[in-house]
Write a structure and sequence with these properties.
Number of strands: 17
Bound molecules: zinc ion
Helix content: 25-40%
Radius of gyration: 30 Å
Strand order of the largest sheet: 7-8-11-1-12-13-14-15
Largest sheet: 8 strands, mixed
Distance between the termini: 73 Å
Number of helices: 15
Strand content: 15-25%
């Protein structure tokens, strides 16, 4: 039996998070707005209007291109892509064609199995979005809000070999877009849309078979499911001696079924020509330098540095660099603390991250600042408070905004390591629980933990647990 491998390329449309649209001053993100409320003569293509390029679109596009290791062109052009569709009022889309903002590039995608897949970028250009049609009660409704929303179209080479690899690519791309601050990259809100080109071939072959294009796969799970389903279908076709035709398929997430849409347009059908209403984009050296002036350390670089510099396990480094603000939080806390970076990671990944998620906050919105987290860790290290008081303090600081030291002072939370006070509490516990004392002396030594717990309860969590255990051992003989 022949073994097959999938050959997958992804075409993504990324909505840049500019305030206004690409060629007019209408609001760009209309997700929460009623249909046709963010429109004007320019984006609805009325006669006699002229587009004006939003420079923020070029800047965000250039940041993304740079992060993808693409080469920025000093001069690029906009072109008209002509096609007729009800949601495209001009009858053409302003896009870029042969002289796009950038060319080349790649994204390295680490896979959970341990290897890294380098995914080549074949196309990276700016364009405007079209509107949206919707079928409702036998009517075809059109919403022009999305017309003129700035997009980057990015097309990869056929470099991905499975549905899981395609999913990982999207996960890393989404992380990168948010990290750079160029897109919210929320697939549910169509900030990041994906089409997949899929073909199969015998494993190890180096030629390409005809591919199908799957449209409308708008979540990571949908990408995985749609590709898996299409790869299986193509294998069935080939095994049955049929040819795979170059169809365009529509993925229906609800039913998990691929439907044939139409045969694919070819490039010639679009009759591209230079957009005569826009000037070339001159990305001068000064402008480029200004855009890239505070280009950030990228997530995978930071992940590697966290492992190297702080001795973190890969697992920790991955979680801490999932989001830029979280990784900044971690690093600021490590600096303020000055102690073991792994300890900061433990507290952050367990308790602090849970608070962040439960409260729906961004790390930089926390009242529990990195400096306050560091202060709590220092109080624990100095023996002023015990571990569990420290954990409780995280919440108290977050809720009050007061410094940890002030709360310890005000609430008398400092650890009691006074031998006499703990000894008295231990004696009380033993006197109150003669049955347990008997069992313990009879050999049930696991009761020690329970005794310590009782002492801690008596002292409202403030006792030095290690000292309590020592005294109990002594009293129990
Ligand atoms: Zn407009």
């Amino acid at each position: 039996m022949t073994e097959y491998e999938a050959v997958i390329g992804l075409e993504t449309h990324i909505q840049l998070n500019t305030t206004t649209k690409i060629f007019c001053s209408c609001k760009a993100d209309s997700w929460f707005d009623p249909p046709n409320t963010n429109v004007c003569p320019v984006c609805t293509g009325l006669p006699g209007v002229l587009p004006v390029l939003n420079e923020k679109v070029v800047e965000k596009g250039a940041l993304l291109a740079h992060a993808m290791h693409a080469e920025l062109r000093p001069v690029s052009f906009f072109d008209r892509k002509n096609y007729f569709y009800p949601d495209l009022p001009k009858g053409y889309q302003i896009s870029q064609y042969d002289m796009a903002l950038a060319h080349g590039g790649y994204l390295d995608v680490p896979m959970p199995q341990g290897y890294t897949r380098r995914v080549g970028i074949w196309k990276l250009h700016l364009e405007e979005d079209a509107g949206k049609t919707r079928n409702e009660r036998n009517q075809r409704l059109i919403d022009f809000n999305r017309c003129g929303v700035p997009l980057v179209e990015m097309v990869t080479g056929p470099d991905l070999r499975s549905a899981d690899e395609a999913a990982q690519y999207l996960i890393r791309l989404r992380q990168l877009l948010r990290w750079l601050g160029v897109s919210e990259a929320d697939m549910e809100k169509a900030h990041l849309r994906c089409d997949a080109n899929v073909s199969i071939r015998p494993k190890g072959a180096d030629y390409l078979n005809p591919k199908t294009e799957i449209k409308n796969v708008n979540s990571i799970d949908a990408v995985r499911n749609a590709i898996n389903s299409e790869v299986e279908r193509q294998i069935r076709e080939v095994e049955a001696g049929r040819r795979v035709e170059a169809w365009t398929l529509d993925w229906d997430e609800d039913t998990g079924v691929l439907r044939k849409m139409r045969s694919k347009e070819t490039e010639a059908d679009y009759r591209y020509f230079r957009e005569p209403d826009l000037l070339p984009v001159y990305l001068t050296d000064e402008w480029k330098a200004a855009i890239l002036a505070d280009f950030p350390e990228l997530p995978l670089e930071r992940r590697a540095r966290f492992i190297e510099q702080y001795g973190l396990p890969e697992y920790d480094a991955e979680i801490l660099t999932a989001e830029r603000k979280l990784s900044d939080y971690y690093e600021n806390a490590v600096k303020a603390y000055g102690g073991d970076p792994k300890k900061v990671s433990n507290w952050l990944m367990n308790d602090v991250l849970r608070m962040i998620n439960e409260r729906g906050l961004a790390p930089d919105q926390m009242k529990l600042s990195p400096a306050f987290l560091a202060e709590i860790l220092k109080l624990v290290d100095a023996g002023t408070i015990n571990n569990s008081t420290g954990k409780a303090l995280l919440v108290k600081v977050e809720e009050s905004g007061q410094s940890p030291a002030a709360i310890v002072q005000a609430e008398g939370l400092a650890k009691v390591s006074d031998d006499a006070a703990i000894r008295a509490a231990c004696q009380e516990v033993l006197a109150e629980n003669p049955k347990e004392v008997e069992s313990f002396r009879g050999g049930k030594e696991t009761l020690m933990g329970w005794f310590v717990g009782q002492v801690m309860r008596k002292m409202r969590g403030k006792a030095d647990a290690a000292l309590a255990k020592k005294i109990l051992e002594e009293l129990l003989g």
